[in-house]
Amino acid sequence: MQITVYDGADTIGGNKVLLEDGGVNLFFDFGINFHLRNQYFEEYLVPRSRRGLLDIFHVGLLPPLRGIYREDSAPSDIDVWSRIRLPYPVREIELHGVLLSHAHLDHSGHISFLRHDIPVITSLCTAYIAKAIQDSSKSDFEKEVCYLIPKVESEDGLLQSGDWRKCPAEQRPFGICDCDPASRETGFWQVLPGARGITPRGLKKTQAVEGLAIKAFPVDHSIFGATAFAVETSQGWVIYTGDIRLHGKHGYLTKAFAEAARALHPLALICEGTYVDAKEAVDEATVHQRAMEVVQKHQTLVVADFGPRHLERLLTFRDIAKDCGRRLVVTSKDIYLLEAAALATDLVTPPEQDETILLYKEPRRLERWEEDIHTRYAARCVTPIDLKRNGADYILCFSFWDISELIEIDPEPGAVYIYSSSEAFDEEQRFDIARLRNWLNLFGMRPVGVPDTRTGKPRGREKGFHASGHITGPDLMELIGIINPEVVIPVHTENHEFFRRNIPPHKLRLPTRGVPIVL
Ligand SMILES: [Zn+2]
Fold first, then answer.
1. Is the pTM of this model over 0.85?
2. Ligand 1 centroid, distance to 287 Cα (angstroms)
3. Beta-carbon neighbour count of residue 142 at 10 Å?
């Protein structure tokens, strides 16, 4: 049995961890390594979809494994395999499945390049959220996680989407590991607004792949549906945490996972280490309390900015709005995601039954996926004019990418902008913060929790408006202590030193990208 960390070995995100045992091959996650991707690409300089795998291979974003990638994505006039520059050999394998821990793109995105018939095994909630993200995004060949538009080569050798009547879109086979999908059958999986000609597939309950038993455990992270896995190999149980934390609202799930994993007497624990530098973390209750104080103090419009898809934070602001006698105004994308999550987990109330939630009515043409939402929420729409006139009645959920909508609203000076998102880690993000501050100055808005433009971190009293999705160092050591594996393999971290310091050498296997760890 061997485990090869093809990506995520010494970087945050892009996890692609191959488990091989007796001819059965499984990946834990198959995400986009944004750190590496950002070294070559940016918003307007992107991999060229007309050349399929070529650009992605050339910059080293995919493991050199023949037999696992889409055949329609290799241009015929060039051998893409000759472009692989990674310092380890090209191998040929059959891939039997991807165990997907959660729907963040740094864990799921590059499933897009895998063959269309490779099963993705995940929780029902992750499947639904991943589909909702794809349905509500512009079509993008790096984000075909749930279904794909087959490519055909034109006469001049360029790859492009074919005529849907001849090559219809295809849905990937998804296996559901945390429940019997038939018990929550809703039809959502079969409705594919952006995929023409598709024949929808059902969801299959999956608890083993090619004879290897799989257990799934719900864990707490900054997206609903996050799952840790245990795979029973010939040498013992291998546990994969995905992204986890103990300090979130549902930290009890992570604790219960650790207890259950311990009972398996695991051989190996593959764990994340994003935030191990931190000794303690701001929790969601603190975010709630701090933001609530701000909302109560101001009789103006409040804009809450948190990352897109962060439904738990959205629900924190829903509770604040309710407690302060305001209503929460969200975009149709938020409603679509909330509805998808509510179909799969009882942790989310269907937004249609939640009187506090209203829909922001943008002055623009609607996409197909959102038409139905605008019909159903017609009586619960809020216009930019409402937000200008009666700002103190609302909390508006926007992210940085919605900021130009403020021009429509033209908020009264003194309106509050609460930044409830992560710090700005790199130079590009600090530029975004500088841009955000320019916008807020333009409208005379009051920034709360907005990071410092130079350091990227919030200062003094501006702290406490964001809780990390990742486990702290002391909490991770507690978790490892409970699980008590024979060996620990850290991934999704830049801090190998933490693990060297805290785990005895005979128990620690620090991975090198592409080098198998034999167990
Ligand atoms: Zn994540």
1. yes
2. 19
3. 18
CA 106 to ligand 1 centroid distance, Å: 7
Q: Are 52 and 123 in contact (CB under 8 A)?
A: no
**How many other CB atoms are found less than 10 A from the CB of residue 465?**
23
Give distance in angstroms: CA of 243 to centre of ligand 1.
5
Contact assessment for residue 36 and residue 494, using Cβ atoms and an 8 Å cutoff: no
In the numeric block, which tokens belong to residue 58?
């050339």
Q: State the pLDDT at residue 24.
A: 97
Please tell me the distance from the alpha carbon of residue 349 to that of residue 317, in angstroms, as a whole number: 14
Q: Would you tell me the crossing angle of helices 332-344 and 368-376 to the nearest 10 degrees?
A: 90
DSSP string of 147-170, one letter each residue: EE--EEE-TTS-EEE--TTTS--E
Least confident of 21-25, 199-203, 260-264, 315-319: 199-203
- Centre of ligand 1 to C-alpha 517, Å, is 24
CA of 453 to the centre of ligand 1 (A): 25
* Whole-number Å distance between alpha carbons of 299 and 292: 13
Å from CA of 222 to ligand 1 middle: 7
Residues 6+ apart with CB under 8 A from 194: 134, 135, 139, 169, 368, 369
Six token digits for residue 518: 């034999």
Q: How confident is the model at residue 178 (pLDDT cuts 50, 70, 90)?
A: very high
Q: How far does the centroid of ligand 1 lie from the alpha carbon of residue 366, in Å?
A: 29
Q: Please determine, for residue 51, whether its predicted confidence score (pLDDT) is greater than 90.
A: no
Sorted by sequence, the CB contacts under 8 Å of residue 151 that are 6+ apart come out as 52, 70, 72, 73, 141, 159, 160, 161, 162
Sequence length of the chain is 519
Least confident segment among 78-87, 119-128, 363-372: 78-87
Cα dist from 428 to 14, 39, 276, whole Å: 19, 11, 24
Residue 212's pLDDT band (cuts 50, 70, 90): very high
Instruction: Say how many Å lie between the CA of residue 299 and the centre of ligand 1.
Output: 35
- Distance, in Å, from the CA atom of 57 to the CA atom of 335, rounded to the nearest integer, reads 36
Is there a contact between 384 and 408 (Cβ–Cβ < 8 Å)?
A: yes
Q: What is the pLDDT of residues 400-443, one digit of tens each?
A: 889 999 999 999 999 999 999 887 777 778 888 999 999 999 99
Confidence (pLDDT) at 321: 98
Helix (H) or strand (E) holding 501: helix 496-502
Q: How far is ligand 1, taken at its centre, from the CA of residue 274, in Å? A: 10
CA of residue 217 to ligand 1 center, whole Å: 16
Range list of H helices, 324-378: 332-344, 368-376
